[in-house]
Write a structure and sequence with these properties.
The complex is a heterodimer of chains A (459) and B (296). Chain A has 18 helices and 11 strands. Chain A is an alpha/beta fold. Chain A is globular and about 70 Å long. In chain B, helix 3 crosses helix 14. The radius of gyration of chain B is 27 Å and the shape is flat. Classes of the chains: A alpha/beta (459), B mainly alpha (296).
Chain lengths: 459, 296
């Protein structure tokens, strides 16, 4: 705000200092212009094109800065600038940059928003015209993985990293309970959901004394709305996966979905083999994952947890997610792609950068640089499987292969306005998770609220 | 024994009982105060303790309050680790916060002086206009301001965080105006008789007498700027320009890695130092300022 009032009884005598002030203001304005000249980013430099890569400010993402010298040496006409933001502010900074026509060229769904949200907001560029001779097979990217980011035959993203669901288990707890370790082979018919619960029971000490209590299983299969999929029930109608992530129907009132939620929350309140949210919060401390406390026998979780396995205070193993009621889906795939944003002025050069990042050599290099990001390039994947001390590479490989075979992409990547939907599930199911209400009491209300929300956001 | 002596003897046990009661009440108050203080300080104790733990100790359950061997190296690691750039962030935050204090104090004081000492028909309306800008939340002006600074080519520099402070703050103007209005007009008349210009009345007379209010404005501005996360996140892209709040938020950015809570707590400890020092130095004036300007 600029207020330069000078009037009233002292107006004349104030004239002189005001004159000085005016000069000062002019000097400040001049300074601003000079400084602005100094601080201009200046993308132009002859034929050189600058590509902005926008990412989360965390070492497992910003490691790409270390690849820039090599890329620029191989691509003399292209410069890469990495811009970053903390995770929580990733989306707001991106939206502001787009609104101000200062959009980055390359980014991913690293914030709360997912692919469909970006796609439906018209943020993504169709890469098909620029792909030219690009073939997924040349980069050892499986076809089904490549297709995740295609809509109507157009390609909107190139897969970069592939996380899957895995079952991590605490070997010390298994040894103490005299149980044999769970298998890594997805085809092992003896490894079923019921067997997992049975093992969990053998390890559980359901006590109010936190020092004594321990639980056999933390079943974190996908987000809350995807969890019934493991039990063969679908919360959303099938058209969701073909119409741009907008469910035409919600099935929370269907008996199979209600039964699935009964099984999920029954693990806490009926079978008493899973920790309550209160217990999890108490033992998880700052990290948010109760498995790290050493008081959980098995945890179905994203494979990113493998990266921290060397820090655990107990021996850890990796196994297949057991066979459940759904014979087709036993793992959630979290394939992170790279997008070129619609406002990019240099999509061809941006694509060159992406192609470089998914090339076999760079994907291999990225595993160590990132501290264990799983490459989408299957030739580089061998190096990833061997990356974790204390866990046999062959076991990780087998788990990954099974997870790909029985995997379904994470709902948060495929459904529009997912952050709002997820928030609704978290809030509404809290009373069930805390044991205050039964799923069948809460689901009808959630069904109505979700339909209302979808009706509003998908207009 | 005289009656007065008897009364004295009777009074002695009564006053002793009264003293005992007073002692009890003092002891209870003291215990209560100690308990509340301990409760208030426990997060700080946990912060210090975590800042001195190794990565392995962070994962121990139940958590230890005292680490086996204090890892003082965590503090050095903040400055040694080239990826964190803590020293650079500290310097950037200091530059921004000190500039914000200078800008806000000077510009707001000048405007407040105008509103307090000059009267026109439009004074009331103009003051309301100034106050009305307080109704606009930052997100409402965020994008237009972002566009403006981007067009000026100031994006990814510290200037968008500094320059707006040189155009006054409605809240601080209101606060200072309240203080300036309480100054006696005789003081200004005396100054004018001694040949003071209007600017000297402001600079040599008003500002030195407004110490408590200025200290309040300075502290509020410093804390606001020091803790601000949203504005720096919007404008700053390069790590060399990041301020401390971005650095701290970034330490727990990864969804896929364990956050280095020991380093984060060490960084938080060091981040709190300027605020604690500022408050310790300016405490008396700050409290006076709050009393005199009627802020609660």
């Amino acid at each position: 705000m600029n207020t330069t009032e000078k009037a009233g009884p002292f107006a004349n005598s104030a004239a002189k200092p005001a004159g000085k002030l005016a000069k000062s203001a002019a000097a400040a304005a001049l300074l601003t212009v000079v400084l602005s000249g100094c601080s201009g980013s200046g993308n132009s430099g002859g034929d050189t094109v600058t590509i902005t890569h926008y990412t989360i400010d965390s070492p497992d993402r910003t490691f790409v800065e270390k690849l820039i010298p090599d890329f620029e040496a191989k691509h003399p006409g292209i410069k890469i600038k990495v811009t970053k933001a903390p995770y929580e502010q990733f989306d707001s900074k991106l939206q502001s940059a787009i609104a101000a026509k200062n959009s980055p060229d390359v980014t991913s769904q690293w914030g709360y928003g997912g692919f469909m949200e970006y796609y439906n907001k018209g943020m993504l560029m169709d890469l098909s015209p620029y792909l030219g001779d690009f073939k997924a097979a040349d980069y050892h990217i499986p076809d089904n993985v490549m297709k995740i980011y295609e809509v109507g035959g157009k390609t909107y993203g190139i897969p970069l990293n592939s996380y899957v669901s895995v079952l991590l288990y605490n070997k010390d707890m298994f040894d103490k309970a005299g149980l044999s370790y769970p298998p890594t082979d997805y085809e092992d018919k003896s490894w079923t959901f019921d067997k997992m619960v049975e093992d969990a029971k053998a390890m559980t000490v359901d006590s109010k004394n936190l020092a004594e209590a321990q639980y056999g299983l933390d079943f974190g299969f996908g987000e809350r709305d995807q969890r019934p999929q493991y039990f063969g029930a679908n919360v959303y109608s099938d058209d969701t996966w073909t119409n741009g992530g907008k469910p035409s129907q919600v099935n929370l009132d269907k008996p199979e979905v209600i039964d699935a939620y009964k099984k999920i929350y029954g693990l806490i309140w009926d079978q008493h083999v899973s920790p309550s949210p209160a217990f999890s919060k108490s033992v998880a401390g700052q990290f948010g994952d109760p498995f790290l406390s050493g008081k959980i026998g098995m945890s179905v979780v994203g494979s990113w947890s493998l990266a921290a396995s060397s820090d655990f205070n107990f021996k850890v193993g990796v196994a297949a997610v057991p066979q459940g009621p759904n014979p087709k889906v036993r793992s959630v795939l979290y394939i992170d792609p790279l997008f070129v944003l619609k406002d990019s002025k240099h999509p061809k050069e941006a694509l060159e950068w992406i192609k470089y990042l998914v090339s076999t050599e760079v994907q291999k290099k990225s595993i160590d640089l990132s501290g264990g990001n799983p490459p989408v390039n299957q030739e580089a994947a061998e190096a990833y499987y061997a990356h974790f001390d204390g866990i046999d590479a062959a076991q990780i490989k087998q788990v990954y292969e099974g997870a790909y075979k029985y995997g379904f992409e994470s709902y948060n990547h495929l459904i529009d306005n997912y952050s709002q939907i997820n928030e609704l599930f978290i809030n509404e199911l809290a009373s069930v998770e805390n044991g205050d209400k039964k799923p069948e009491e809460v689901l009808p209300g959630l069904q109505q609220k979700l339909q209302k929300l979808l009706g509003r956001v998908n207009k | 024994m005289s009656p007065s002596a008897t009364a004295g003897l009777q009074a002695q046990p009564a006053s002793r009982a009264g003293r005992r009661e007073q002692l009890w009440s003092k002891a209870v108050s003291l215990i209560l105060l100690l308990l509340v203080t301990a409760a208030m300080l426990s997060p700080l104790a946990f912060m210090v303790s975590t800042s001195l733990k190794t990565s392995k100790e962070l994962l121990i359950y139940p958590p230890q309050l005292l680490p086996d061997a204090p890892a003082w190296g965590n503090y050095a690691e903040l400055f040694r680790n080239g990826e964190i750039k803590f020293g650079q962030q500290y310097m950037n935050s200091l530059i921004v916060a000190v500039s914000a204090v200078v800008g806000t104090v000077l510009s707001s004081a000048l405007v407040a002086f105008g509103f307090a000492r000059y009267r026109t028909k439009a004074s009331g309306f103009l003051f309301l206009l100034v106050l009305s800008t307080m109704m606009l939340p930052y997100p409402a002006i965020m994008i237009p301001q972002f566009l403006l600074f981007t067009k000026l080519g100031l994006h990814d520099s510290l200037l968008p965080l500094i320059l707006p402070n040189f155009f006054g703050s409605a809240y601080m103007i209101f606060l200072l105006k309240q203080f300036f209005s309480t100054m006696p007009s005789e003081l200004y008349e005396a100054g004018r008789i001694d040949g003071c210009s209007e600017f000297r009345l402001f600079w040599n007379l008003t500002l030195p007498l407004a110490g408590p209010a200025m200290a309040t404005v300075a502290i509020f501005t410093f804390i606001g700027s020091w803790n601000d996360l949203l504005t720096p996140v919007l404008y700053l892209d390069s790590q060399e320009n990041f301020t401390l709040p971005i650095g701290l938020a970034s330490m727990m950015s990864s969804k896929f890695r364990l956050a280095p809570w020991n380093l984060l707590m060490a960084a938080s400890m060091l981040t709190a130092v300027p605020i604690i020092l500022l408050f310790a130095v300016a405490q008396r004036r700050f409290v006076e300022g709050i009393v005199l300007t009627g802020i609660k």
